[in-house]
Amino acid sequence: MGMKLSVIVPVLNEATFVPLYLESVGAYADEIIMVDGGSTDGTLDIIESFQQRSYPIKLFTMPQTGLPYTEDWDESRVRNFLIDQATGDWIMNLDIDEIVDDRFKEALPELMSRQEVHIYQFPFVNFWGDPQTLRVNSPGDERWSNDITRMWRSGIGIRYRDEKHHCTLEGPGGQSIWQIPRGRVEIPIYHYHYALGKKIKFNDNRRGDVNLHENQGEADWNYAHPEYTIATTEFKGEHPAVIRRYLQQSVHDS
């Protein structure tokens, strides 16, 4: 028997991304562990439909309290609960608006078999405003063109630090995860939060990067930010297959 991968993810009102995510993750995950925070937009119905199709989903409910992206949001509690439910040899914390490049499925068995590596980082590709534009680093705003840790060997004590939102991983005893033997996967994770669906969600902490037109409710994704330049570039790669199908269907429906 080969090693197994548990993918963990919290969800709350993500009807756009849930079917894309599950179709993608279902191709390589041995179990998909989800915690719903109280969705009311059909997210749970979509998850149930995938369960009926024998996707290996374990669904839990932990009602979200407080405002998203504030100190009221006890995110680390939810994410550590997800870790506790995982039974795989490896854990991947892949958020609902993140899709791994299609090459990952083929590469995964070799990655999990490497004895000298306990944690993996991936190139993180951020779309901005639409699926053909990337947000990239600029002076004073160096948070877009970087690697991100998204996979580690289970049972080595990696947890989320006790933080309310956008919590970070740490090793046993508060050890920095950068001290844990790691490898870099030359396969990108694509972040579609700002390119598909609602794009800007309620109380989104990136709202300050977007000039929202008060009357039209539209966003200027490249306005002149007062503190730094919003730097973008054209996406010249290929989207994962699930995203290509979604975009083709969107064009057809329009």
Residue runs with pLDDT of under 50 for 5 or more positions: none
User: What would you call the structural class?
Assistant: alpha/beta
Largest sheet: 9 strands, mixed
Average pLDDT, rounded to a whole number, is 92
Number of strands: 15
User: What's the total helix number?
Assistant: 5
| Gap from first CA to last CA | 47 Å
What percentage of residues falls in helices of 4 or more residues? 10-25%
> Helix and strand string, N-terminal first?
EHEHEHEEHEEEEEEEEEEH
Radius of gyration, in Å, reads: 18 Å
Estimate what percentage of residues fall within beta strands: 15-25%
Overall spatial form: globular
Keywords:
globular; alpha/beta; 21% helix; 24% strand; single chain; 9-stranded mixed β-sheet; 254 residues
Q: How does this model look, in words?
A:
This protein is an alpha/beta fold. It has five helices and 15 strands. The strands form four sheets. Strands 1, 2, 3, 4, 5, 6, 8, 11 and 12 form a nine-stranded mixed β-sheet that branches. The chain has a two-stranded antiparallel sheet with strand order 7-15. The chain has a two-stranded antiparallel ribbon with strand order 9-10. Strand 13 and strand 14 (219-220) form a beta hairpin. The longest helix is centred in the C-terminal third of the chain and has 13 residues, at 241-253. The chain is globular and about 55 Å long.
Q: In a nutshell, what does this entry contain?
A:
The protein is built from five helices and 15 strands. It is of the alpha/beta class and 254 residues long.
